[in-house]
Predict the structure of 2',3'-cyclic-nucleotide 2'-phosphodiesterase / 3'-nucleotidase.
Amino acid sequence: MTRPFTLSRRRLLGTGMAGLGLAVLHPFSARAAAGQAHLRIMELTDLHVHVWPWDYYADREADTMGLARTAARVAEIRSESTNSLLLDNGDFLQGNPMGDYIAYERGMAEGQEHPIVTAMNEVGVEGGTLGNHEFNYGLEFLENTIAGAGFPVVCANVDRMDGSPLVERWTIIERELTDGAGETHPIRIGVIGFVPPQIMQWDRAHLEGNVTARDIVEAAEEHVPALREAGAQLVIALCHSGIGAAAHEPGMENAAIPLAGVEGVDVILTGHSHLVFPGPDHEGTEGVDVAAGTIGGKPGVMAGFWGSHLGLVDLLLEREGEGWRVASHVSEARPIYERDADRNVVPLVESVAAVEQSVAEEHQATLDYVRRPVGQTAAPLYSYFAMVADDPSVQIVANAQMWYVAQMMQGTEHEGLPVLSAAAPFKAGGRGGPDYYTDVPAGDIAIRNVADLYLYPNTIRAVRVSGQEVKDWLERSAGAFNRIEPGEADQMLINTDFPSYNFDVIDGVTYRIDLSQPARFDRDGAVVDESASRITDLMLDGAPLDLDAEYIVATNNYRAEGGGSFPGNDGSTIVFEGPDTNRDVIVRYIVEQGTIDPKADGNWSFAPLDGATVLFDSGPGATQRLSEVEGLQIEEAGEGEGGFRRFRITL
């Protein structure tokens, strides 16, 4: 489909007209000769409904995100050039509480406009593609959403069951380019889009029997020539897929490099993996040139996530007969913030007020949504004793992860393997101080409480590991404790150099920790005693865990990719890379369950040590929860240091 370009009032608002004529032109615009034209291709990607610079989970302003901030970069870049084009690379529809509010509360009836689409229209997006998260709420929701887009949405590798495309496979945007002599010339810009075929697994419930998803490169090899035959003089691939292996493999999720190698593709805009290109994220990656800003030899960019950057590919085009060729190019990911020497966030732009105001009503409705209950918890959620006993704040995370991953394994080669779940306490005192604990009372639970349960924006993963690796995983966690001598009183239990986020509890099995034994691993995960074994009575369904069998363990991307140096976790054992954050998984679990019962199931404990007592410190609020701790002989032992309370456990 061919679309003429018109500059709408909204696009004028998005350019920030006060800056027009005042900005310094880009060298390509300043130096272009007759028959040469400078075109700036701008990329938004992985917005995940972030319009306002607001962290809805923490319920506070955040300078690291928001299309309203990125819009200031758009205005800046438009003012620096004679010709520009703004495109969105997908994953705009889901990923923060505003998206869930629209999907679960307000709805997306035919004729309604989604706030992220309203905001993209305001900024002046001129074309876009689908990301994997566009399918999270079902096809009808998606179709009603993109109906309000003031720009074409394309995707070449998702078809309905009858073979017709779900959306347009590609489009041609007709533009007039102004060259260095001030003359205008027509150009026909082809835009084609792609999404990971893994959507058929990730959103099977919505998609199975309704659509099919093809391999990205195979679809490109069919449809890019058709786009060229239709008269496209420049082809931009909107690749909602990361920068992965250089060689093509059928069905690959991160196919940006082989896609760039398809004949007829001139520019590639990437995303999906929430990284930045050009930049250090891809230093040393085969098939890319960070200095040149090329992916598979073609100019490309990846613009972070949540509006953190605006991707930019500058092209110097030269007339070649009736067409154009790329004479030179430069790529950049322009950030909306930086960090100072102390790692503090420093905003580089202010929000564009018109973008914020375009969705101000939905923003306020989302605040009301995150502040009111979405479910109930039948037991309090607190982390005062998370390092010494099975804990409800960790239990809810483990339960949600196990629920999610068990569904994702259905219909795969891993179906039927036992699903376990690894989770660690994040707020457990330590350097965070005596108030740094989770404490959510029984009763109503709001979305913003989830940030208290899960501090980090990790994404869900599943690994396939052996029983021996499960045991070693737990041995690594058991390094959180000092070695305890039987018969001695009041020994300090916790190794204070060991971060609580590396104290993984694995649910689905039961086990005990023998503190009289030395630790096998040090705080950094290095083996210090190969023969040491603290984990005893490791059982699955009442029988000893088979160390030679294989198991699926739900975890997060940090752990699965090697964070913390845990056995069985180096990236090679990952069998599922979920598109959702662990926070989103917890929210979905709470919404679906209605009432959750996260009471700790006591699947782990310390092995008895005759005559030994140990001390550990917790927050003052622990005193009020002391009577709720089961399976542990524990009592107050006075004041700790720095405002902590001290407790004694009899082993």
Remarks:
- The first strand starts at residue 2 and ends at 4.
